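[worker-b] picked up task from shared queue
[worker-b] task type: protein-ligand structure
[worker-b] ligand name resolved to guanosine-5'-triphosphate; SMILES cross-checked against name lookup, match
[worker-b] sequence length check passed
[worker-b] input payload:
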Amino acid sequence: MPPTVNDAVFRIARWRAEFADRTIESHFNRHQLRHTRSQVRLALLFCAAFYVAFTITDVLALGFGREALILLAGRVVVAVSALVSCAFTYWYPHSIRRIWLGASITEILGMATFALVVLFRPHDTPWHAMSISIMALVVYLYIPNRLLYALAIGVISTVVFVALVVWLDRLTGPELLTMSMLLLLSNGFGCMAAHRYALIRREEFRVHAVLKNLSERDALTGCHNRRYLQQELLNMELSRARRFKLSLAVVICDIDHFKAVNDTHGHAAGDAVLVTFANLLRSLTRDGVDSVIRYGGEEFLIVLPETDLDGAVHLAERMRGALIGAGTEVAPGRVVGVTASFGVTAVNFAHVEQRFAQELLVDQADRLLYTAKSSGRNNVQALQFHGSPGAGERRKAA
Ligand SMILES: Nc1nc2c(ncn2[C@@H]2O[C@H](COP(=O)(O)OP(=O)(O)OP(=O)(O)O)[C@@H](O)[C@H]2O)c(=O)[nH]1
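[worker-b] inference finished, payload out:
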């Protein structure tokens, strides 16, 4: 489920171009995972194919001897590593860490093998400089990885390459300087582009999360709204309960005589009472498991996964009792107290196999709420749901 949105949560640690909050960063990575997987597959397979194809240039430069064979072996190791990294994306489709690990290992092996190419083919140093520039850009921009890892791999391999060239002593001073400056340029621009790309992706994610939050939450109470319930939550929880043969409970509650609160104390006071009620419902439910939805004006719906009818009735009773003891100070020294009525239903998929429209479950809880209203208010009405509304034994809990 997406986290609640506020600006502080989306602060970006700019130098590493990641969300400062680890939970948000991991939500972001999960959100990107599908895209990351396909990008890693395409980039690594493409690189592996080219890396092996360059064997032709080794053979042309060195002949088909021992050194060419060593380079071929190195190139094949890199290609196999790329294939295994691609396989990681199928074996562990939800693990971004394994994807990064696979990508990093392949990049390190690729750079190490390239050092061998430089050693065995010192005459081609200017071409190698061009190759390592391209490889650095690929590391920064095309193979998905954390910016920090890409930067470390890009910089270390470039430094090692320059050190090798100095040691081989094939270039004049000005040539060496020109090459080093070009490598600095490709690393600098590669890193800047990767940094900018990482920031843009995160900004897109932030906007997406803010809009999603606005479209799914009620502005007054901060609870989820009916749209979220109908379009996402209920379907998701029903399919999960169905798949694992679990029980799922729904509670609908409504403040009694709420119109009188508005009429007597004003709309703002009514709003404050609604906020108190919503906070109380949230405080009594399990964080990150249960969901409190503002279902209508002064009506709230609570979805309780892995909860049977008895558990849900017990919770509704606690809510009813807690509300009686919780007043709202609507003006200095003026406290408004309210009661609420509850309709509770639960479906147990260990016993109910058939598919049914999600509205039927909510309809039944709604009907029970109105029974509670017509039975004098401030009480809980409960009924097990058996796949069709109305079937089952009704219980008046209080
Ligand atoms: N302050 C405030 N009032 C609201 C809001 N949404 C709905 N209402 C009011 O809630 C009241 C609901 O009144 P009714 O449906 O008659 O229900 P009730 O007075 O609670 O009576 P029972 O439910 O039968 O106990 C109406 O006066 C609506 O205007 C809101 O966001 N803020």
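[worker-b] attaching auto-annotations
[worker-b] The chain has a mean pLDDT of 91.
[worker-b] releasing lock
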